[in-house]
């Protein structure tokens, strides 16, 4: 690798979508020379891929929470399944699980604001069979294998 390769890598790290023409202009090489160098860097496994850098969810105003729902004893798994059909239509509800123990349903919600989260909670409380609703607000996500986040 020489100074041109290093300059190309630096530019691509800054903006992986930078055009070959713009890179060529920045490093004072022809487009064909830059194209050949990028191809060689890829073949030599110096450049392993091009990625979109996504803002971490903490940088947004989003809020998420788990809701633990307990119903009257008359509620059985079948009625929980019917209620889950209604939950599916609520914007922000990401998943719902029927679970064992003191809680009948556990749902996970992502909202754009605390106001929206409270509106979802208010909607959940409209069910006449609901005996108890506990809210567990997410303070910080430590890792999530479904989103491929890494430990800090």
Automatic annotation (TrEMBL):
GO cellular component: cytosol
CDD domains: HTH_ARSR
Keyword annotations of the record: DNA-binding, Transcription, Transcription regulation
Transcription regulation recorded as keyword: yes
GO process annotations (BP): regulation of DNA-templated transcription; response to amino acid
Keyword Electron transport found: no
InterPro entries listed in its UniProt record: ArsR-like_HTH (IPR011991), AsnC-type_HTH_dom (IPR000485), Dimeric_a/b-barrel (IPR011008), Tscrpt_reg_AsnC-like (IPR019888), Tscrpt_reg_AsnC/Lrp_C (IPR019887), WH-like_DNA-bd_sf (IPR036388), WH_DNA-bd_sf (IPR036390)
Molecular function terms, GO-annotated: sequence-specific DNA binding
Residue ranges constituting the HTH asnC-type domain according to the UniProt record: 1-54
Gene3D superfamilies found in the cross-reference section: 3.30.70.920, Winged helix-like DNA-binding domain superfamily/Winged helix DNA-binding domain (1.10.10.10)
Name of the protein this chain belongs to: Lrp/AsnC family transcriptional regulator
Organism expressing this protein natively: Vibrio ostreae
Taxonomic lineage from the root: Bacteria, Pseudomonadati, Pseudomonadota, Gammaproteobacteria, Vibrionales
